[in-house]
Automatic annotation (TrEMBL):
Name assigned to this protein: CRAL-TRIO domain-containing protein
PROSITE patterns: CRAL_TRIO
Lineage: Eukaryota, Discoba, Euglenozoa, Kinetoplastea, Metakinetoplastina
Molecular-function GO term, any one: phosphatidylinositol transfer activity
Pfam family name, one: CRAL_TRIO
Cited InterPro entries: CRAL-TRIO_dom, CRAL-TRIO_dom_sf, CRAL/TRIO_N_dom, CRAL/TRIO_N_dom_sf, PI_Transfer_CRAL-TRIO
PANTHER family, alphabetized: GH16843P
GO cellular component: a single term: cytoplasm
UniProt cross-references to SMART domains, sorted A to Z: CRAL_TRIO_N, SEC14
Record domain CRAL-TRIO: where: 175-289
Amino acid sequence: MGSKGDGTTLDPLPADFFLFPRQNEGFQIPYFLTSEEEAAKVRPPPVVKTLQQRLDELSEKQRIVLSEFKVTVQGTEWYDEGMHDDWALIRYLVACDFKAKKSFEMLRNTTKWWKEKDVANWVCEKCLNNPNRHMMQFVGWDLEHRPVCFMSMRWGPDRSDPIPHCVSAFNHLLQLMPVGVEKWVFVTDFETYSHMKDSNLRVGTTVIKTIQNHFPERLGMIILVNAPSAFSFLWKLSSFAVDEKTKQKVVFWYTKSTPNVRNEFPKVFPPVLSSYLCDAYDRSKACELPASPVWYPKADNAVDGETQCVYRLSASSEQKSR
């Protein structure tokens, strides 16, 4: 049985969608993740792209580099057939612009980190004890079949030592990728962001460096929604630690100004996920806990995801302006 952080008991949930047996009380579970039957309607096909199709995307020169790189890696004492398949080797080469020596160093360091620290088995002990400490929840897949993680500052107030939770969330997303999908998407709600509380450069750069160094070519997109100007300043300060590829994957969207989520969400997410995220932002803005454990589209305006997204955000803005 699943449960919420407030003790509400839920029917059994598909285990592979949830990191913890108890869910954050600010998280409203999308109905399409509440059962295998519903999930089957949104779950990607098991294979989106074959390895041969991925290899065909490489140039002849890149395939030669890959072949030589593979021989080199297989000859090391730390080679692991499960970790170092062709998909992984390609990612490390792409991350380093097919510079084999640099790719080798990155792969060796990550393998050492992964094995010595037993990263595959990391869990967030804080959230096991209290699921309301952090809020990083898988909420579905985008239009490219990439798993999507929703993060909320309001519902996840703990900012201390975020790496164990982040890494366990990253590993969870990896398990939700069909063959041929290699990246994830993060959507962050900045409601309640405090420059005094949340502007620790070291914490932010540590998370970014962990992604860059140990999860290369896994980040597809980070959508920062309603980030205040204070954070924009912080982002500029920390950008020295972020490589150019990562910078290009970060976008700033808003619920009132532009680029506006009403226009942008439907370009990235299926209609029902766009609707879910819009409702989640409405609740966060109003500081409202879910009225029920499971989210369903509003029947009166659920024509399609884009229409509902526009309606919900417009209605919210009108109410606040009165």
